[in-house]
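4.2 Preliminary Data

To establish feasibility before requesting continued support, the project team ran the inverse folding procedure on a target of 207 residues. The structure was first converted into the token representation described in Section 3, and no sequence information of any kind was made available to the design step. The complete token record follows.
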């Protein structure tokens, strides 16, 4: 993997720290840059569809320029370590795509490491526990950064339809709370235009 340390450092500056999840995202982003789309997306040239909201997604944002604000990062809440990227064609229709599914297996834990992790999960922050947990995380990061892509990913290249380009909609005032809401998110209840939270509360009160 090219520039592994530099890429991990850049992603960590955005994310706040290094961790195995971030390392997964760095490996995903690195593979995309090396094999699929060599440039950082300045607009919506590259679209990412991510199937989780883990630390890895921050690496995708930091390194590939796929962000929620630009509309070229789409979150599917499936809880899967799967990342699909589309090159948006001039028409926004069928384009090159790559699907990366993570199949990495962490290095085997020793019984002592399992016990330290159990204690950490239970709230133990003693020096011995923290030292063990940090050492374990470092081992995972090293394993991820040094492995061949084929050993940690299932990769499929295909042609498909990317998500629609981001659109700007009008804002409408909610008739209950008065806060502006994107018109496509407004719900109707009893002749009133409500934002999603007010609509949900309205429906709960009617039960």
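Position-by-position output of the design step:
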């Amino acid at each position: 993997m090219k520039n592994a340390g530099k890429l991990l450092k850049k992603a960590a500056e955005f994310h706040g720290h290094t961790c195995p999840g971030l390392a997964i995202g760095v490996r995903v982003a690195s593979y995309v840059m090396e094999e699929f789309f060599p440039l950082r997306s300045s607009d919506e040239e590259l679209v990412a569809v991510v199937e989780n909201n883990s630390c890895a997604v921050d690496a995708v944002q930091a390194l590939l320029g796929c962000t929620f604000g630009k509309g070229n990062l789409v979150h599917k809440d499936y809880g899967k370590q799967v990342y699909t990227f589309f090159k948006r064609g001039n028409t926004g229709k069928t384009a090159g795509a790559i699907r990366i599914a993570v199949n990495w297996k962490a290095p085997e834990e020793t019984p002592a490491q399992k016990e330290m992790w159990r204690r950490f999960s239970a709230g133990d922050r003693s020096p011995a526990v923290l030292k063990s947990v940090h050492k374990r995380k470092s081992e995972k990061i090293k394993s991820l950064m040094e492995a061949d892509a084929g050993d940690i990913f299932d990769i499929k290249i295909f042609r498909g339809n990317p998500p629609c380009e981001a659109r700007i909609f009008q804002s409408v005032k909610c008739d209950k709370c008065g806060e502006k809401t994107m018109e496509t998110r407004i719900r109707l209840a009893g002749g009133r235009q409500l934002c999603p939270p007010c609509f949900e509360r309205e429906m709960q009160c009617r039960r």
